[in-house]
Amino acid sequence: MKNTENGEPIRAEHRHLPIDEEDVRTAELVQHRDLAPEQWSRFEGYMAEIFRAFGMRTDTPGTQDTPRRFVRALYDATEGYEGDPKLLTAFPTECKGGPSCQIDQIIEGPIPFFALCEHHAFPFYGNAYVGYIAHEHIIGISKLTRLVRVWARRFTVQERMGGEIADTLESLVNAHGVAVQLQAHHLCTQMRGVREQHPATRTVVWRGEYANAPELRNEFLQLIGSRQL
Q1: CA dist., res. 172 & res. 1, Å (int)
Q2: Measured at the alpha carbon of residue 20, what is the angle toward residues 141 and 128, in degrees to the nearest 5?
């Protein structure tokens, strides 16, 4: 969006990107889950049985609704499986095919996220940094946050999540390049096992021009305050 001399915004016409049925990542942005009432009741019963077996009293004022709350909270925490149709909107850039289109970076972050590790179903949480080099289309800045959370609010692993964010963004705007860095703390290593308390796990994904140009990677890392390669 640009401003005219009188301060009025100029709104670019947007287009809705077609969903290629063969593109799984794009298709997953518009799914919907639907659980029947009997499923909710059955799942709550399962959790009540597990909680009691592990030592919780489920007949107190504070815990009698805990199985129901737990199942509902888990459902909310995995809402990324439903996707986000608002991501299927892109806007034209100012690019007319010149060389500047291949060097200008768009970077957003830190984007806070919470995810559930598929190995133990424990949370891992942290910040994402997303950068891309636009071609003929851009995606709204708020959509980058939506994109991160679509893939974070699932049962996943950090390594895969970064690749899914990068590949989806690349397909949505046909970018010249995409960069994604994730920094996260994993409760599965803090609450159990080795019981680490402070280390953060960092992963980075390069696509397109970033994979071929060290200077672009270093500029991205410098702009997000990370170390250079």
Answers
A1: 19
A2: 30
pTM metric for this prediction: 0.79
Tokens 């703390």 appear where? 185
Residues 141, 216, 124, 168, CA torsion sign: positive
Confidence tier at 157 by pLDDT (50, 70, 90): very high
Q: Please count the other Cβ atoms lying within 10 Å of the Cβ belonging to residue 48.
A: 20
Where do the H-state alpha helices sit in the chain?
A: 24-27, 37-53, 66-77, 141-152, 158-173, 187-190, 209-212, 214-223
pLDDT given for residue 11 in this prediction: 32
Give 116: exposed, middle or buried? Use CB within 10 Å, 0-12, 13-18, 19+: buried
**Largest Cα–Cα separation, the chain:** 69
